[in-house]
Specification:
By secondary structure, the chain is of the alpha+beta class. It contains 18 helices and seven strands. The model is unreliable at 1-19 (pLDDT under 50).
């Protein structure tokens, strides 16, 4: 089904394809394929995060204006698959398809459509949650009643140009919560291709991440455990086998997103150039994850487990590129006209996997004061992730992170100052959180999740210019704790239609 928004005065459409006729459970299931966004904010959010520097060289150029605007935290004026405009339209198109399915089910004997109802509710919640991670600040219990949320339509549009209010973050997260709670008991694995749907593991993994951001740690632990099962290690990726794959072509990315891998809970097909911009090509090198970041903060950094060589992955880089890449995002070009060489890029992402879900639980344990359980989860992950595994103790984690300085843009380290609105126990919780955030940053590199940790923990990030020798020559900007640019501006056509924009500095 096509995703089309023809009216410049309306940002929500009735249905991705108005010719769709719903008659039975099979037709509803077919419609729900359109309830998964076909765009990803990964590229946009990676450019906005501290996983990117400006690399200065005559041979390193930007991929497009959007890349520069995202990196510089500017309000983005460019369109395209990666733009805020397309992410907005794709997610609200998914919401529209979900609403159409729910409306049809409500006119029937609901008991005959329970799996479809569960999937529709989860898809609506997921699309709204995705939008919130792009266009809103992190959820904060202290300010949620006044912080700007987003529209949460529960009915398909019946007229063009319908007006919507943004509401508050409290209202937005309350509605996501309600949809998740109604949907979870209905989740199923009964799909022909379950990894491309909200199967049970994916459903509970989504719930675990949502409730982590929502601050309900008991639910995080409960739902992460449902996703991971009694023995989490059986769900984790065989990192050694994946690391042995060739870096060439799409061999390693294909191995990463393979639907037969237990760790992959949900796979999402999207239109995106991210696999090319983040690929081993001289494309988009001006703003990229470089050697300075990799060696001091992410993929090639050391941790309490030792150097990065003790972890079961390798990076790709060479002297011509500014980029340092973990080869998991593929670039697949589909020709519409081979003779003229025209077509479009798409890729496959893994929005939810076992490792990230395990770290959600470890973080919830930490913030609940259950440090032993948090260490058990960290060690479970490392038992599969390390080349030569030795269990860590809490004292070893504390010694490592207490033994290094906080990050400075000129003297970078893996330890960044945490400034959340809630209180953190400095003795045990902070070093544990530093470890969890460090591991999550490595494991979710290129996935677009780092920006959420920056928002949730009030991490200050900088814009640095790096020369060809990997030396910082200039610090050009700072994104402080209260900087309104942390929330990407909503699309200009939506603002022009009358919706309240995000705040900006004078």
């Amino acid at each position: 089904m096509t995703t089309a928004f023809s009216s410049c005065d309306s940002f929500l459409d009735e249905l991705p394809d108005n010719r769709t006729e719903l008659t039975d459970a099979s037709s509803v299931s077919s419609l729900l394929v359109s309830s998964y966004p076909n765009a990803t904010p990964a590229y946009l959010l990676e450019m906005e995060s501290d996983n990117t520097d400006e690399n200065v060289s005559n041979s390193w150029t930007e991929a497009n204006i959007l890349q520069r605007q995202a990196y510089k935290w500017s309000d983005i004026t460019e369109n395209g698959n990666e733009s805020p405009q397309n992410i907005w339209e794709s997610c609200y198109s998914a919401v529209s398809a979900s609403n159409k399915a729910i409306e049809f089910i409500e006119t029937k004997d609901t008991t005959q459509y329970l799996p479809q109802l569960g999937e529709a509710l989860l898809c609506r919640a997921y699309a709204e949650f995705t939008l919130s991670t792009v266009f809103c600040n992190a959820y904060d219990k202290k300010t949620a009643d006044t912080d700007l949320g987003l529209p949460y339509p529960t009915k398909t549009e019946t007229k063009v140009g319908e007006k919507y209010e943004r509401g508050t973050m409290s209202e937005l997260y309350s509605r996501i919560n309600a949809d998740i709670q109604e949907a979870l008991p209905l989740s199923t694995d009964d799909y022909s291709n379950p990894k491309f749907h909200f199967n049970q593991s994916a459903s509970y993994a989504f719930a675990a991440r949502f409730y982590l951001y929502y601050g309900d740690y008991d639910k995080v632990i409960k739902y992460a455990t449902r996703a991971l099962g009694n023995e989490a290690t059986t769900k984790l990726r065989d990192w050694s086998a994946w690391n042995a794959l060739s870096q060439n072509d799409m061999i390693k990315p294909n191995g990463y997103v393979n639907s037969e891998v237990n760790a992959n809970f949900l796979i999402q097909s999207v239109y995106s150039e991210w696999g090319a911009i983040n690929g081993p090509y001289l494309y988009g090198d001006k703003y990229a994850h470089n050697t300075l970041i990799s060696k001091n903060e992410t993929a090639q950094s050391s941790g309490p487990w030792g150097t990065s060589k003790n972890l079961n992955y390798s990076v790709f880089y060479n002297d011509q590129l500014s980029k340092v890449i973990v080869r998991k995002i593929g670039a697949y070009f589909e020709y519409t006209d081979r003779q003229s060489g025209t077509g479009y890029y798409h890729t496959e992402m893994v929005p939810f996997n076992a490792e990230e879900t395990l770290l959600c639980r470890a973080e919830a344990y930490t913030l609940s004061g259950q440090y032993k359980n948090a260490m058990n989860d960290i060690n479970s992950l490392l038992s599969k992730f390390e080349v030569s595994y030795t269990a860590l103790t809490l004292d070893e984690v504390k010694a490592f992170y207490n033994g290094i300085n906080y990050y400075n843009p000129l003297i970078p380290t893996v330890k960044k100052a945490l400034n959340p609105t809630f209180t953190i126990d400095a003795t045990n919780a902070e070093p544990l959180l530093q470890c969890i955030l460090h591991l999550r940053r490595i494991l979710t590199l290129h996935d677009g999740l780092r920006m959420q940790d920056i928002k949730r923990y009030g991490i200050v990030i900088y814009r640095r210019q790096i020369n060809t020798n990997g030396v910082v020559t200039n610090v050009t900007d700072t994104l402080g704790v209260g900087d309104p640019r942390r929330a990407i501006q909503i699309p200009s056509n939506v603002i022009n239609a009358g919706m309240q924009p995000n705040k900006r500095n004078n």
